[in-house]
Amino acid sequence: MDRYFLYLVLLNMLTNVIIFVPRFLIQYRFDGMLISIVIAIVAGMALMYADTVIYARFPGQGFPEIIKNRLNKPLRILILITFAVFWFFAGLLTLLGYIDILHRFINPELSKVLLLTFFLLILCFVIQFPTKKVMYLLEIILYINVPFIAFIFIKAVTSDY
Q: Where do the TM regions start and end (predicted)?
């Protein structure tokens, strides 16, 4: 498996754990949240495995190239637009989660609009890089931050407070 695919999955997992899981665990702790997490892990891993198996059947092709040969044009355009909208909102949700974390824990005096503007400027700068450079940057960020996250998690679990 390509290591960069694993990096993207790991980054997404870390992001979701940091941003969304604590809020949902507290809010829905008496409504079956823990069993939902277990089911989500199993279902997510199964879907990810199925997705990688399907893409392995079409080497060197992405999703648009695969459906181009299989579906008619109106259905293909509808599917691609739907995927684009879903990915836009998934990215927006993650970005707003980061903004919320930064605003809450790092700098509460700074407005959320200014933080969002700062993040969007960084994204506009990074989006111009070739994909390989972005993946190298992601690799470096993960290698630097994962030990800190593990340390904080271990300290939080083992602490009496």
A: 6-26, 33-55, 75-98, 110-129, 135-154
Return all residues near 37 (Cβ < 8 A) that are at least 6 apart: 21
For the chain, the domains span 62-111
Structure-token pair, residue 113: 């609009």
Terminal CA-CA length for the chain: 41
Report whether pLDDT(1) > 50: no
pLDDT by residue (tens digit) across 62-82?
888 888 888 899 999 999 999
* Tokens found for residue 88: 């836009």
Q: What is the CA radius of gyration of the chain?
A: 19
Contacts of 34 by beta carbon, 8 Å cutoff, 6+ apart: 25
Name the band, by pLDDT with cuts 50, 70 and 90, for residue 93.
confident
Torsion angles phi and psi, residue 14, rounded to 5: -65, -40
Q: Which residue, among 38, 42, 40, 63, has the nearest Cα to 52 in the 3D structure? A: 63
* Tokens read off for 160: 């009496």
Range 83-94 average pLDDT: 88
Tokens of 37: 């997490």
